[in-house]
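Two proteins follow. First one:
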Amino acid sequence: MNFEEYRAKPLLAKSGIAVPESALVRDADAARAAAEKIGRCVVKAQVPTGKRGKAGGIKLAATPEEAKFHAQAILGMEIDGYRVEKLLVEAQVPISRELYAAVLNDAGSRNPMILFSMMGGMDVEEVAETDPEAMRKIPVDIRRGFDLAMARHALEGCGLAEMEGAVAEVLVQLYQAYRGYDAELLEINPLVLTNDKRVIALDCKLTIDDSAAPRQAELAEQAAPELMTALEAKAQQAGLKYIALGGSVGVLANGAGLTMTSMDAITHYGGQPANFLEIGGEAYTKAKIALSILLENQEIRSLLVNFCGAFARTDVMTEGLVSAWKELAPDIPIFFTIHGTGEEEAVKIVRAELGLEPFDLMDDAVKAAVAAAAEAA
């Protein structure tokens, strides 16, 4: 779940991190009224994506009329596929230095990782590329946590002088917010030092683990709507997860892990997967709707079906898929590999109804699907 800035900033404030005075508006006149109250301000597009400034979605305004002018220009703008319908009018602050701070899930250590840089306000990728040493990486043992002493130690040698303690406190508060809200990423860029010796978060990016929704029910309702294609939306309505990937080998498997393994194997053998689409868990009976969604992608030249049953029965999935295949009658080759619960029955269904022989090995099925797609192309 991704959150727009105006949703994430109050969570920082609730955790003790200072944020500028601001107002959410939806039209230019409201932006002008907000600026009259706030004073010199920043007019910021509210969409759940980065690089808003580069797209022209963040503008400084010295007067209410200027705020209205910028609001008129930004509203309706499209940034990274999102239409701007809301603005945050935020007070300008006297910036002395821009920093970067974030906490994220580190796949390597399977623990949180705190990132800190004295080069805030820039793209993280750009900082890492131009000067890898500029980004400090502080691994955190999730069992032990992260306290003020650790934060001070992490900031040693950064040149923060008398502001080191205040910045260290913000890092601790940021980590606590990350843990408290089940975040995958909580980022402040820039985190600024002001001329009057304050530490203020000027922006915030928040991503929360989808599986945390039951624990964060109230917060989950505030998440930004996911930007989806028509097929992705159709799949979601059917209780399926579909992602178009641009390749020519269609993939239909049960379980996210097996689907990703199938995709990796397709790439390994020289092909390109056309999609992510899995029918595991409670969706294992939805082979028919899954197939119909998948076949709406006109770029698919072959289809790999990889079923491996544990609790889900492969014969139930296969029966639904074969029935749909005969009904839809697609003009592409299909390749099966089936193992696990209901395997014998599933193989019999494929043989009897489609006249095809499933492959014993996944690799052989993948190679055949990749070769067929290449030949069709």
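Second one, unrelated to the first:
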Amino acid sequence: MGNTAQSLASRRIAALLDENSFVEIGGRVSARSTDFNMQQAETPTDGVITGYGVIDGNLVYVYSQDASVLGGTIGEMHAKKITAIYDMAMKMGAPVIGLVDCAGLRLQEATDALNGFGEIYMKQTLASGVVPQIMAVLGTCGGGLAVSGALTDFVFMENKKAKLFVNSPNALDGNEVSRCDTASAKFQSEEAGAVDFTGTEDEVLAGIRQLVCMLPANNEDDASYEECTDDLNRVCKDLANAAGDTSILLSNIADDSVFVETQADFAKEMVTGFVRMNGMTVGVVANRTEVYGEDGGKTAEFDAVLTTKGARKAAKLVRFCDAFEIPVVSFTNVKGFKADKHSERGIAKAAAELTYAFANATVPKVNVVIGAAYGSAYVTMNSKAIGADMTFAWPTAEIGMMDARSAAKIMYPDADAAVLNEKAAEYAGLQSNVTSAAKHGYVDTIIEAEDTRKYVIGALEMLFTKREDRPAKKHGTV
């Protein structure tokens, strides 16, 4: 551990990394400022421990803020230590993990501290899409440092004492912390969607270890695989019963039933995360209409519609996967867009973001239609029209413009019930039937639900060498 005493910051690093693997960098660095009698203050490591180590043998770079040194505030040298770690991580192609416990900017250093903040933002921007960035909020993370968290790929947060905010709850007009604690892990994970994982500090550190082992080390890494001991042709009995709660479905089809869910508390009508299939890391996106607790009881129910939050949640996962060459598999069960005044404020833009994310991604893309697939919401959910390489559908799936009865009412507004029933049945057979979609080439194969695992694995194996050229441009604007 170099010259650093066993502070809380150093103990967190030791708990995160493989035993005795941490090598400290910049352990002798201290503040240079002399304003406001700063020369008389002891600032060992300038409030942040930086270095590298391994997680299950995987190289990572780490910084851990020490709240016992000037509150862990960010000053000039503090920021330089973090940016130096980023430079090394990008050179070596390894993830960066930040363990945050910080009172914010160091007031005694003013513009130097502000410049340091900006330099951290710059390094995070350059590293985005090059190496995975993970932040764990274990204490206070306020003001500009909350923006730093949003620049990372995944945010973990301790669920009792940690605070994450741009403006503190009491600074918000008409609010106080007792009324609504906007800095809490609960608010930031459930309402804001700024936090991917919450738990005790031990659970947070264990979760980071699991995630790091699931992800590639960088955007050119092709070693994010492990030997698969699970049966590649394993039949997933009763999988059709999990069509409502797709988090259960994803666990069932994954190697050894391991599913790492991201943003689990946010927009629960959409499920996102990572599984391994035949040892290969795969990003997954799935509509959800039901949530079941650990006791097997139903805890929530949703309409089969695409929401603003759900679309943005899915788009974030797809963008990450495309940046790091991770295949994407989607599970579609959607009848349209959520229709209310609040949703109308943002649903078009959010749906455009998801459509663009899927269409723009050049990684292998597989879609499995497990329920309804109606209208433009279906098109948005990784349809063949926007680039899905392989599309499977369960026999019970329905693919079309809308449900048959609604279509019949529109086409025959003056018809009586008997005629409507007749025309609805005719429409279902001709337009909404999964067989009809397959005849038109919009579904490649109709599969039994229990065979989903082996068909998806087979498709991903076939798509392993996929290459796709796109029109030359600097970047898109969506």
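SUMMARY FIELD: The first helix runs from residue 8 to 16. The radius of gyration is 25 Å.
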